[in-house]
Every structure is written in C-alpha cells, then in structure tokens.
Write a structure and sequence with these properties.
Elements: H1 2-9, H2 16-25, H3 32-43, E1 48-51, H4 56-69, E2 74-79, E3 85-90, H5 92-114, H6 118-137
Antiparallel strand pairs: 1-3, 2-3
C-alpha cells in the first residue's frame, strides 16, 4: 500500500485546481459542443480530446469560450481538416489534479478492501504507517473514526474527511485521447492524424 502511495498516488492535487474548474462550470453556453467540452473538462481525467470536423465557426466559438472561461485549464489546437476540428488539451496542473483525485478514490477503496474495521487497519499497518496512509490520502479515517482519534495526534485527529471521495466520471461519448506530453498553444494537425471524436456515439 505504501509503495503504491509513493509511486502512483503522488503528491496531493494543487489547491487552486478546484477553483479553476469551478470557473469552467460557471459557463452556461447551451450549445452541444460547449456542453460536451465543459462536461469533459470537469469530470474526466483524460488529458486531451477532439471534436472532429465541426466546422470553422464552431471551432472559433469554442476557442473564444475556452480563452474566456478556461484560460488556465486547457489549450486548443485547430485541426486543419475540411471542415475543421479542434483538439483540446488540459494543462499539466489540471490534468495531474484530476488524476490525483481518481487515485485517491482507488487508494481509499484498496484500504477498505483490506479491512472495513478501522481498529483492525490500525493494528495491521501500525501507528506510523497508518498515519502515513491517512496523510497521503488526505482523509481523517478510511471507514469510521477510531474510538479515540486524539490518540493519533494532531496530524490525523480533526482533519476534514474526504473518505467518500469518488473517482472520476467518464467524459463525453467517445473516449478522449490522452497524452503525456506538455500541451502546445497552437500547431498544425495534418489531415491523416488519428482523431477521436468527442461527439461520436
């Protein structure tokens, strides 16, 4: 468990990521393209997605709204097909924050799979490792509070619980493409590039 925490979970997500995503959620354009992109940006942990051949007017509309409401969340690239499409890539900070939230939920589920009794988990891990697990997952407890949580010290007792954190939801229909490379502001995408259509069934 501790190996998974150090190698997979990593550091806690940036605190400002939630605020940046909240700004995206405040956007209320009713068009299908904007609705799909907003849902994908705020609920999926995929790095990038494309809307294929939606046409230049729709591309320009999305670009303008992304600049206004998601400047710090994602960048866009025009796909030079006919009609045009658009590729949207999350910033590194936002993407890693969403990955962390999903991994947090996996870690909590894994700990619960070991045992659903908090006292048993404490006995299995030992005090030091038990505290390390809670601290890494940013929760006050895995299942239910121990009878005397104050005995664990201020590092655990009194911490707001996120034990009910949920995993990331799937994005809009059509699995978005992922990429480990830093996003580029603008680049030409050739006609033969493999495109995953965010709006396809």
């Amino acid at each position: 468990m501790l190996t998974w925490i150090s190698q997979v979970l990593g550091a806690m997500k940036p605190a400002d990521a939630a605020q940046q995503l909240a700004a995206v959620r405040s956007f209320r354009c009713p068009c299908n393209n904007c609705t799909a992109v907003i849902r994908w940006l705020t609920t999926s942990n995929e790095r990038s997605a494309t809307l294929n051949r939606i046409g230049a007017p729709n591309v320009r509309h999305l670009e303008a709204n992304l600049r206004q409401y998601a400047r710090n969340v994602a960048t866009s690239t025009v796909i030079r097909t006919s009609p045009q499409g658009i590729q949207i890539t999350k910033t590194d900070a936002i993407w890693k924050a969403q990955l962390w939230a999903g991994n947090q939920a996996i870690g909590i589920s894994a700990a619960r799979a070991i045992n659903t009794n908090e006292s048993v988990l404490f006995a299995i891990f030992g005090e030091r490792d038990y505290r390390a697990v809670l601290r890494a997952l940013n929760v006050a407890y895995i299942n239910t509070p121990l009878p005397n949580p104050a005995a664990l010290g201020p590092a655990v007792a009194g911490r707001p619980s996120q034990a009910t954190a949920s995993g990331s939801n799937p994005g809009p229909s059509g699995a978005p493409a992922t990429s480990a490379q830093p996003p580029t502001k603008r680049r030409r995408v050739e006609d033969d590039v493999q495109i995953i259509d965010l709006t396809s069934d």
